[in-house]
Amino acid sequence: MLVLEGESSFRFPLPASGMVLIGRDVEADLRLRDDSVSRRHARLTLHGGEVRVIDLDSHNGTLVNGRRVEGSHRLASGDVVTLGTVVAVLRTSTRAAAPAHTLEPEPLMERLRMEVERSLRYSRPLAVLTLALPESGLHREAVDNVCATEFHSAEAAGWMDDGHLLVLLPEVAGETGEEDLGERVEALAVACPGARLGYAVCPTDGCDADTLVTASRSAAEGGPPGLLRAASDSATRLSLGERSLLLADPAMVQLYALIRRLAASELPVLVNGETGVGKENAAFAVHHWSRRSAGPFITLNCAAIPEGLVESELFGHEKGAFTGAAAPRTGHLESAHGGTIFLDEVGELPLPVQAKLLRVLETKRITRLGEARERSLDIRIVAATHRNLEADAQAGRFRQDLYFRLGAATVLLPPLRERPREISLLARSFLAQACHALGRREMILSADTLQVLSHYRWPGNVRELRNLMDFAAAAGTGDVLEPHHLPPRVTGAPTAGAPPVGSPPTPTPRKPLSEEIRELERRRMEEALQEAEGVQSHAAALIGMPIRTFRFKMKQLGLTARGGQRGTPSP
Ligand SMILES: Nc1ncnc2c1ncn2[C@@H]1O[C@H](COP(=O)(O)OP(=O)(O)OP(=O)(O)O)[C@@H](O)[C@H]1O
């Protein structure tokens, strides 16, 4: 059991069976000194691999995972027990006698939701493993046997369908070579040759049950048989010329596969989606993957041009075509000859211009304003809109015939909030790019920040996320991006301002317990690293922390082997 008391943290080994009295009393087996702990505060009973805690009518009570203990409460590995202000975390590393729980999909998801909440609240590691059978039902019995014999009692597993087993691994951080994860994977891979295995960790790959399941499943499905693949390695980076896109959400991966197929044709494509969702990138992908990629890619934002100038911008004009047309000018459509024109916000085009555009599309010929002759035109159109063009067409706000032509192939990009798997990946990538561009030290996102980002609704979608990371890199001073560095609209915190007259005095703000524990851990780990002169195994031993957990936390807290924070300049 890891005990965090005041400034110190230590490991208290639990017996295999018997009782452990916790309190300030000299007779206590686990003797604590903090005044918030009663003399005889609580008792642990250990029997047959089961650990239970009972509160002994203590003054400040005993809490497990934030809930007050009433009567005798069974503990699972990773449970956080609070005694007054002292925090203890149970860690069972030996195999328990009880087999793992094999659950039906619904209870398994319910259990996962609980584990996610615990992981986030107390900053405890949690990994979610998916095993995809090589064929539905094949080796299923052998896999079931592994679940029954090999898993800890704190772990849970279950078949989500005929071909996919989901395993919840509390207290497993998903580190390379991690003992717990490695053992499970080996046992499963031996029982089921040809299985694909993938895992996701909380909060790095997701802050809710559904996202973690999707992430671990996509990692498994995209990997080679017999090997384990991390969700963080399963994102796709698409290079489209100078543009680089990150895709991880299965819906987005499928959409881009569709775009690639459509690119091979000459059909116009209509890209639909909220602002900032990535419509221009999708349009560029159509161009990049088409036979026109060597030709120009011209963008025109139809909403940004004053109504009187739209026609000349699109079709071009001859000298003297209208007042102010001092010289002839090639329109955007003509500039795109041999390539692709991207008409952003096409729904904003005035109706008369829509009629002219339709004619150009049908005849593949264009006439500049003020000119009689027609020029032939070889372009492909990709249009985009955040509006419902079909409804606009029905209501007469958009020409139906043009809508049918532009929307021959429609691609709908989901808003960022509907692809939670991508939020943390994009945030990390944008933050790294922004730090690099500013020439500043790398920053990492704390677990709490990942949680905040995953709960925000992102009305400005990917663009808003990119801007936010640019801001954080420019404004932040430390190496860890914490929620208080983010604007109140994102964190949901009330904006600054004088309290209304007559309102009660504001209490001194308190940090969440998880944040205090993290600060304490960081301090203790830094001291230990310095004392051990950077030898991680020694440092871990000095504060009684398992080396795996120590390494995981070093990474999470951005610590270097010299005890400083990542990127700290040497004196
Ligand atoms: N999958 C992605 N990976 C990396 N960057 C992305 C991704 N999707 C969008 N972006 C970035 O987000 C920003 C907004 O994207 P984009 O301009 O394509 O959105 P949009 O939907 O066309 O916006 P608008 O509706 O305002 O025209 C750009 O900086 C773009 O590069």
From TrEMBL:
Any idea which UniProt keywords this protein has? ATP-binding, DNA-binding, Nucleotide-binding, Transcription, Transcription regulation
Domain FHA stretches: 20-69
Ranges of Low complexity compositional bias? 488-500
Q: Which InterPro entries match?
A: AAA+_ATPase, AAA_lid_NorR, FHA_dom, Homeodomain-like_sf, HTH_Fis, P-loop_NTPase, Sigma_54_int, Sigma_54_int_dom_ATP-bd_2
Q: Has UniProt tagged this entry with the keyword Transcription regulation?
A: yes
The Sigma-54 factor interaction domain covers 245-474
Q: Does the keyword Ribonucleoprotein apply?
A: no
Q: Which Gene3D superfamilies does the record cross-reference, listed alphabetically?
A: 1.10.8.60, 2.60.200.20, Homeodomain-like, P-loop containing nucleotide triphosphate hydrolases
Q: Per the record, where are the segments of Pro residues compositional bias?
A: 501-510
**Which SUPFAM superfamilies does the record match to this protein?**
Homeodomain-like, P-loop containing nucleoside triphosphate hydrolases, SMAD/FHA domain
Region span, Disordered = 480-513
Q: Which PANTHER family match?
A: TRANSCRIPTIONAL REGULATORY PROTEIN (PTHR32071)
Q: What is this protein called?
A: Sigma 54-interacting transcriptional regulator
